[in-house]
Amino acid sequence: MTDPPVTAASDASSNPGSAGRLRGLRYLARRLTHFVISLVVLVTGAFLMVELVPGDAAQTSAGANASGELVEQRRVELGLDRPLPERYVRLWTGMATGDLGESTTLRVPVSEVLKVRLPATLELALLAVFLILLLAVPIGLAAGALTRGGRRPMLEAGYTSTATVLSVIPEFLLGVGLVYVFAVQTDLLPVAGRSGPASYVLPVAALVGGSTAALSRIVRAETLNVLDQDYVRTARAKRMSWIRLYLRHVLPNILTTTLTLSGLLLGGMMAGTVLVENIFAWPGLGATIVQAIISKDYPLVQAIVITYGILILLINLVIDLLLMVVDPRTTLRES
């Protein structure tokens, strides 16, 4: 009689640690596959958007009164005389090598424009993301703890009304209001440029206000849901201290939903930086893409669209990886 064959499944079931690592690797592989597919869709969409838009980029670059010979010379310089498939392949090659073509209006490599402008946008966005998470989680947690079970109805009404109003105000409208208060009525803070720590206050406040209110409402709803669970009531019955209760049982269980939804909020906030940068004359990609669209600088528009898209994809990928670390049950549900 021969022994039965040992399969990978039976080996994994006999070793819970190996099964967990295998699920984690599969989850990571799926997320990386989704990232690659989304990147292909993003780059293809940006490429077709520029190719299908009306107008002649070579004529725009050469000038309205340029001769036909000069326009054709400019067309060759920009690579627009190449077949469409070849230009598509050159776009991927350029992304890999950092050669994204030349700006038709600035007459400098697009990569140089991104190198100068991208840090200003990243500073604004990363600072806003950090403050949103730093403020929204404790505010939502405290609001849920103080108003659970219908307690403090006045506080609940005030918090809900304020958060609802703030969450529906667009970033650009909040930015205009801040300009009116701090530039027209007072002279407390600079309202334009990037000239020191004080210049960050108003643009970041315009980005943080609505997203913090919206995310704190989600955290509060999740907190109320967790506080009604049996394991929380059991912990209370055992007279567990409230600090330990909230840090050990409530906070970890609200982070999964909070991180998932924060990815959607942060993606929308990246798009909001375009308008906020223009309101506060911030020297980032948002202000640059508006000028590039007005002047029909298609290579620069294409590169900035791809850059914004990659940033949003990376934000969502990082959040998915954080979910895998914070709540390993995510990999179990996915499998």
From TrEMBL:
SUPFAM superfamilies xrefs: MetI-like
GO molecular function: dipeptide transmembrane transporter activity
Protein location: Cell membrane
Domain of life: Bacteria
Protein's membrane topology: Multi-pass membrane protein
Record field: transmembrane: 32-50, 124-146, 158-180, 200-219, 250-276, 305-326
Cellular component GO terms, alphabetical: plasma membrane
Pfam families for the chain: BPD_transp_1 (PF00528), BPD_transp_1_N (PF19300)
Residue span(s) of domain ABC transmembrane type-1: 118-323
Keywords from the named record: Cell membrane, Membrane, Transmembrane, Transmembrane helix, Transport
Record family assignment: Belongs to the binding-protein-dependent transport system permease family.
Stored PANTHER family: DIPEPTIDE TRANSPORT SYSTEM PERMEASE PROTEIN DPPB-RELATED
UniProt-recorded name of the protein: ABC transporter permease
